[in-house]
Amino acid sequence: MVCYPTYGGSGVIATELGKGLAKLGHQIHFITYKQPPRLNTFQENIFYHEVLMSDYPLFEHAPYDTYLTSKIVDVVKHEQLDILHVHYAVPHATIAYLAKKILLYEGRYVPTVTTLHGTDITLVGKDRSIADVVAFAIEKSDGVTAVSNSLKKDTYAYFGVQKDIEVIYNFIDLERFTKTNKDHFKKAIAPNGEKIMVHTSNFRKVKRVEDCILIFKEVNQRIPSKLILVGDGPERRNLEDLCRELGLCQEIRFLGKQDAIEEILAIGDAFLMPSGKESFGLAALEAMACEVPVISSDVGGISEVNVHGETGFISKVGNVEEMAANTIRLLSDEKLHGDLKRNAFARAQEFDIEKILPQYEAFYNKVLEEAVYDVA
Question: What is the pTM of this model?
Answer without folding.
Answer: 0.91
